[in-house]
Each structure stands twice: as C-alpha cells, then as structure tokens.
Amino acid sequence: MSSFRLALRTLARSPGFTAAAVATLALCIAANLAIFACVDAILVRPLPFPQPERLVTLNNGYPAAGAPRIGSSMSNYFERREGLAAFAAVAVFREGSLVLGGTESPNRVRMMSVSPEFFSSLGVTLARGRAFNEAEMAYGADGVAVITDSFWRSQFNADPAVIGRTFLNDGNTVTVVGLLPSEFRFLSSRAQFFRPAAHAPEERTPQARHNNGWQMLGRLAPAATLAQAQAQLDALNARLAASDPFAAVVKDAGFHTTVADLHADYVRTIRPLLLLLQCAVLLLLFIGCFNLANLVLVRAAGRQHDIAVRLALGAGWRHLLRQTLAEPLLLALAGGLAGLALGAYGIGLLHTLGADQIPLGGEIGLGPRAALAALAASLAVGLGLAAPLVWFNRRLNLAAGLHEVGRTASTGRNARRLNQIFIVAQIALAFALLAGAGLLATSLQRVLSTDPGFAPDNVLAGSISPPWINYRDTAARLAYSERLLAAVRALPGVEQAAIGTGVPFTGGASDNAISAEGFDYSRGGAVRAHYVSTASADYWSLLRIPLLRGRYLEEADDHRPAQNCVVDRAFAERYWPGQDPIGRRLSFGAPFDPARAITIVGVVGEVKQNEVAEPAGHGAVYCPFPVTDGFNFSLLVRTALPDGAIIPALRKAVLQVDPALPIDNLRPLQQGIDDTLLVRRSPAVLAGVFAAVALLLAGIGTYGVLSYSVSRRQREIGIRTALGARPEGIRRMFLGSGLRLLGIGLLLGGVGALAIGRAMQSILFSMPALHIPSIGFAAVAMGLIVLLSSWLPARRASRVDPLVALRSE
C-alpha cells in the first residue's frame, strides 16, 4: 500500500500529466466499451431461450432465379414438422400489423402470426393460459390471441383474470387464451400479441410448396447436429421433388433449403461491420497506450538518478518493481472508471445514431459483462504501461545514472529508441485507421450521390391495411381506393395522391417468379423472380419515375385488372434486348400461361427498392392496383406544405373515408431512405471520430518525444551551436528525425490500410480495397500533423542559447 500512496502523491504533484493520461485512457476505453456493448448484445450474448444454440432457421433459396433467400411456405411447414428426425420441433411465423379497437379510437399495432409449436420451439412457458392448437389455424377459427406482458398491462390494466377476455382486432372479436412472461422477447420483434398462422387448405398442397411467405425456425433434437439436419432436409427435398408440379422449374432455379443457427443468421448482415468497428477502437486503444507509454518513459528518464540512488542505498528490485507498477496501475484504474462513465454516455450516443435500428440493437446497454470487460482492459493497459518501465529500469546503468543524472547514459539512448518505436507504431496505426475511415466516408458519399430512380422530396407515405372482413372482393377494394384518393386530393396543399403496394423503401416490394412469352429459357437461364407491385394511375408521375416507352397505367386499367402492366427498363432489357417490349406478354409463375397473360403497355425507369446501394438489374413489374389479393398498400401524397401542416389533416381525411381504418407509419418518404443509410452513415461518423482522435494522439506523441529529445540534448545543441552550427541546421536535424519516423510509420501503416480495405469489401459500395485518394488523403493529413508536431520542437531547439545550455551543465 505504501507504493500506491507514494504513486498517488507523485501523480498529484504532476496534475497536467495525470489529467492528460486519465483523459486519454478514458476516451479510448469509453470508445471500446460502447462498441463492445454492441458486439456483446448483438453477436456474443445468446438469445434468451433455453439451449439457444439448438435453435435454427430454415430458408428456401432460388439463386439462379435471383432469389437466394426467400423464406418458406405453409406446405413446407407441414412436410417438415413430421418428416425430419433431426428436429424436435419446427414452426412458422410472420410479422405484420392489425388495427386494434373499433371506430372510436382505432390504432395499428404490431402482431405476429405463428404456428402452434412456436413458443414450445423457443422453449417458452406461458405465464397464464395456453398456446394455440392446430384447429385454430383455419380461417374462421383463428379468433384467439396470446398477448405480451406490455399489452396485458396497457390494454387490460394487468387484470389477473385476463384469460377469456376479448378485444377488437381488424373488426373481429379476439379472445385471449394465453399470456407471455414479462421477460419474453423474440429477436427484434415489437409484436404486442400473437395470432394463429391461419391459412387456406390449398396452401398445404404441393402446388403451394414454393409460395414462400413465411419464416421458419426449428429446434434441433437433443442428439442432432446442424449437419445432420441439413442432410435430412436435403433428402426430404429430393423425395418431395417427385410430387412437385414445378420440379423442373425450381431445379433450374437452383432450389435448396439452408439450415443455419438462428442467432448467427439473424445478425449475419451486421456482423462484419461490428467486428470492423471493434477492431478500429482496439487500434485507437493501442495508439492511446503507445502515447501514454511515451509519456511515462519520459518521466522515468527524468527519475533515473533517483532510482540509481535508491539502488545504491540497497533498495531491492522487488521493491522497485512494486513502485514501478503502482503508478501505471493507478492511472489505468482512474482511466477505466472515467471510461465507464463516458462509455455509458457513448452507448446513449449510439442509440441516437440509430443503433436500435439494427438487429438486436434494442438490447444494447451497459451490462455487468461490459463493465467487467472495461475494468479488465484497464488492468491490461496498466500492466502494458508498466512493461516498458520495468525494461527501462532493469537496463539502468547505475554508475552513469549517479554521475550524469541520466542525461548521457546508455539507458537514455535505449529510452529514445523505445520512444521512437512507439511513435512509429502510433503513426502506422493512426494512418491505417484514417485510411479506413476515408474508405467508409467515400463509400457513403457514393451511396448518397446514387440516384434512387425517383424523387422522394415533398412526398409523404403511410400504410393502410383494409381488413379482409370488410373488403373481401376487388370491387370493394377499388371503391375504397377511389373514395380515399378523392378525399386526399381535395385537401389544401396536396398536389398529387396515389396508392401502391410496392412503394420504395417501405418494405412493400415482393419477389415473384415471372415468365415471358417467347423467351428461350434454355439459353437465358431459369425463370427469374422480379419485383411485383401494384399502383394507381398517378403513381409514376407523383414519384417522378420517367416514362421511357409506351404509356403509364390509367384509371381505366383499374377496371380491367390483369390485362395490362408496366415494366421497368431492366425487365425489358433482360427479355427483349434492343427490341420494343410494348405489346409483349408475361404471366406469373412458370411456365408461361396464356390464359393468365398480361400485356406490357409501358416501360419506366429503374427504381431502388430496399437500399440505395442495391445492385441494378433486378427488374420490376407494375400492375393495376386491384389486381392483388393482398390488402396492404401505401398512400402517397406529394404536397407543397410542410410535413407538420399536412399530416393531421391527412390522418383526419383517411378516417373520414373509413372511421375504423387509420393510416399507419405516416412520414416523409425521404426518411425511409435515411433509415436504410443508418448502417452506413453511423459507422462512417464513428470511424471518422476514432480516426481524428488517433491523429491527434499520434501528433501529441510525436511532439512529446521530440520535445523531450530537445530538453535532454540541450548540452549537445549548445556545443553544436558554439562550434558554428546554424539554427536552420538544428531545425533540419530535428525535422529530419520526425520525417524518418513519419516515413517508416506510413510504410507500415500502408500495409495495414490495405488489409483494412480488403476486410471492408463486403460493406463498401463500389470501392476497391486500395483506394488511392483515400490513402493519399490519410498520408497528407498524417504528414501535416507529424510535421507540425516536429516543427515546434525543432524551432525551440534552433533557439537554444549555447551559453545558457553549457552553464546549466
């Protein structure tokens, strides 16, 4: 304890050094803590279910048809739940939203349709009541629900007798049969209640085997492995191919089913980005440690006379080791505690930047494991800072230390060499980090400058889901849409209004297999899936989607559905390159069916559907609005008024058309684009901040070492000046030292920058691993900082008065 008390007094006598060291450590540890909290919550922490490692997801894929991952079908569910010994259970689920309440105060809430085994597959025991049974999966018998704890408290005031109570859902009376425990959560779902996976009998047939509208999960049997489950599933698919009416088509499309760990599969898209950010903050921590190592070495060099005296008076190396360890450990502990506090703020900042938008992002928080990781990192930093001090003191030349007070001893040369190694490491790591940040920034800039194919400015979009019970047929849906558009167009400030089922960046686009009449599939490949959506007459002009050939759909087309359609340029070029596609026909599914064929009357420009950075060429087909059997669509409004001025009136107008049918998620269409950019914008911002801090630390480290070198070599500088050395020669000597360190650091950092570029290829948009402008910018920025950090000590060295320097000796 005496060693720590002495270290405390020593640090208190150097408040500037102590504050700088603690602030550096706190900043670096806080950055690591915030990113580690993300990695821990999303990648490391297991899902909150019993034996979560046995939970898997099953996805069908048709890679040759442009649909490598597309869910499963209800037919798949019934075929797989009994035919696979490797699975203890399988279940299907699909998230959506339904209107809650009656005509007085309707609101839309998130819900999920699930099969009876869903909760048992997860290993969840209901707090009250029961789960669903198979009889409740039929339309008309599905008026039951399992509710969440939050829904129970908000809608039923936590009534203990909630089982058997009812609520209105899409105009139907739903009976509560089960209550979930308060801690239940499923991935990132915000579903408030669960309904049976209702379906029609024909959805169980082989003809519906590839209607992949459901997600499927399973729990492996106790002795089964992932490889066994995959092998059994492959064998089952092969057996079922004999009864598959589309066997030849799906074989050409590369049909297969993939079994994957549920947790790993769910976070697969965000994993590379989080790991790269974790590597970035680790580099920042190393830079900070090298910076502090230089500072403590400078202090140690100034104390070697004191240490030499202690050794000469009989102090043992064990006592010296305890004293050497005490100061770095205290600094690291203080920096770690400050980093914990700053890290909690950093986690809040991550949520502000949109962390809760990513898979499992809502679970990010400062938990015990993250706090322990921060303290463990602090201990490791303290030991790391102490290591060069121990090495420094063990190589102390006792006689020189007593005689020269450490000024010209060989230990001083060793310390300077170690200082320079640390500076080179800082420059190399900071340069690599800066180059990586430049790649992310350039990639983001290219994404932002990419044309989405439409004009989202001044456009509002909201979703409406007319319940099937009130809008069962095409005539009812068409009549409602006409009344809705008339009411909205009559609002002051509304320039145009339209409806559609595949509005970009709203999640409404769906893939469907499409066959083109006369296309030679033996030479052109498998039947492909394309975006299919429906739209009213003003849809394309409202979004400013250009007409390239023919005409847009008109209101008259709504009254003869399934006869005419519009396709985009990518679709036309795939099937009729260099030809006029107007008048050509296509049909849904395979093979081409003349009885269900629709005719192309127009070609429009390509539109990005889910992400600005998505590759072009997927192809899209637009049909008249009533052609779909679905009930969910989006209302689009182009307005000249501010959003806040038109939204209340728009909501009121929608409710006037049908008081039980509100508009949901009404917001600017641009916001949907911005949300998809969060996973690119936030990492670029964070990497830029980390790179700026690394650049600053490298500059401070370079300045500190060269400034220390000037102070330790004043006698040498005085002699050189007395012998005729000119000030500019002295400046060149120290500038040259800084430039040598810069050159070596840039050379080593360039290798690291190339490695970082290659590691980031999966998250970059149209960027090579070696991007010369980004490398050049990083090199120039690094060079300017190091030159400035070198010039200041060099300037001071050139002004040393030889008489003062020699007199002080």
Task: Give a structural overview.
With 809 residues, the protein is an alpha+beta fold. Helices cover 50% and strands 16% of the residues. Strand 6 and strand 7 (172-179) form a beta hairpin.
Q: Helices, strands, pairings?
A:
Layout: H1 2-12, H2 15-44, E1 55-61, H3 74-83, E2 87-100, E3 107-114, H4 118-122, E4 128-129, E5 144-147, H5 149-156, E6 166-169, E7 172-179, E8 193-196, E9 215-220, H6 226-240, H7 247-252, E10 256-261, H8 262-266, H9 271-302, H10 304-312, H11 317-352, H12 368-394, H13 398-404, H14 410-448, E11 459-464, H15 474-489, E12 494-500, E13 510-516, H16 521-524, E14 528-535, H17 539-542, E15 547-550, H18 555-558, E16 564-568, H19 569-575, E17 585-588, E18 598-604, E19 620-624, E20 633-639, H20 643-657, E21 664-668, H21 669-676, H22 678-712, H23 714-722, H24 727-759, H25 772-798, H26 802-807
Parallel strand pairs: 3-8, 5-7, 14-19, 16-18
Antiparallel strand pairs: 1-9, 1-10, 2-3, 2-9, 4-7, 5-8, 6-7, 11-20, 11-21, 12-20, 13-14, 13-17, 15-18, 16-19, 17-18
